[in-house]
Design brief:
Blueprint lengths: L12 H6 L13 E7 L5 E7 L1 H10 L3 E4 L4 E4 L8 E8 L6 E7 L15 E3 L10 E3 L8 H5 L3
Parallel strand pairs: 1-6
Antiparallel strand pairs: 1-2, 3-4, 5-6, 7-8
């Protein structure tokens, strides 16, 4: 794939924090975290990672393309499920080492568990010595993952 997007070289702190060039900073593994959020509701949908090439592909096609750390391959969100994330806007933080993808979630959901969002539980506070628990905060299944992905 011949991507035409060019990232400028990283300059000094003030250039990165105040300049107009997008100069993403990747971690030691060449990855940058990307939080996908629903552009309309502002609900967090999922957290994934991008490398330089997946970010270029995302910018080129206007749909989220991630790097799968577990499979070590590109992951065009929705290629298997049809639940595509159309990019509305991409934001970066002050030092450009994290991204927020404002997306239009097309299809039943973003989570491989069959839910709209991967963030369907919250961490409950506990008393000293008690095991910390998770509390369901929504997230009824929107689709059957076994039917979509062909595995239980």
């Amino acid at each position: 794939m011949d991507c035409k997007n060019v990232f400028a070289p990283r300059g000094g702190k003030s250039e990165v924090e105040e300049g107009v060039d997008f100069v993403p900073k990747y971690d030691a593994d060449g990855l940058i975290p990307a939080l996908a959020m629903d552009a309309t509701t502002r609900e967090p949908l999922m957290l994934a990672y991008m490398n330089e090439e997946s970010l270029r592909r995302t910018l080129e096609i206007g749909e989220a393309v991630y790097w799968s750390r577990s499979r070590q391959e590109f992951w065009h969100k929705g290629a298997t499920s049809g639940h595509i994330q159309r990019i509305v806007e991409i934001r970066t933080d002050c030092d450009q080492d994290a991204l927020i993808l404002m997306v239009e979630q097309i299809g039943a959901g973003a989570c491989h568990t069959g839910r709209n969002s991967c963030f369907y539980r919250k961490v409950s506070t506990s008393k000293a010595g008690e095991t910390v628990k998770l509390e369901q905060i929504g997230g009824e299944k929107a689709f059957d993952p076994a039917a979509v992905y062909g595995k239980a």
